[in-house]
Amino acid sequence: MLRTRGIRSYAFQQNRTKLLLAEACRMGIRNxxxxxxxxxxxxxxxxxxxxxxxxxxxxxxxxxxxxxxELFYPSFAVAVERKCRMECTVAATRLIVACNAYRQxxxxxxxxxxxxxxxxxxxxxxxxxDGKPFRYSASRGIVYSVGxxxxxxxxxxxxxxxxxxxxxxxxxARRWKTEDVVFEIRKIE
Length: 189
What we know:
This protein has 189 residues and is mainly alpha-helical.
């Protein structure tokens, strides 16, 4: 009986599990106001615990707590990505409206996003993924974010490695799978 209890307490350490999940919550709160590139990563994510062999994961103390964390943590990652996507969409919409107002007054798109300041925007919106100003191509009529890969691919619409084309959701759903997150500045008639 004593031996079984020792194995059980080795496999599931309640307080250690609570601390692990509490730290994940605290990390989420600390990251809420940061851009994606500046967000801290949990130690388990850095270690790539799910990439380790099954034996290594089972042999570690608090195996059950670590498995619970592995099940729970992806919801934080999804929430962080959704936050960045929402902020990106809002900033891009502001830029598109400002560019169209500029085009209506000047007869052409601005040469740079800085030309919109201060008449149309207080400042050029910041890309929520890398913390730098949004990117722009007047010749292509687009504003874009570097996206989750944090690489500026010049407004590339190419699908990222590992992503597949899916017909549902339309262009808005596809936008988040490309090398850069591109928003077209359509002319308002």
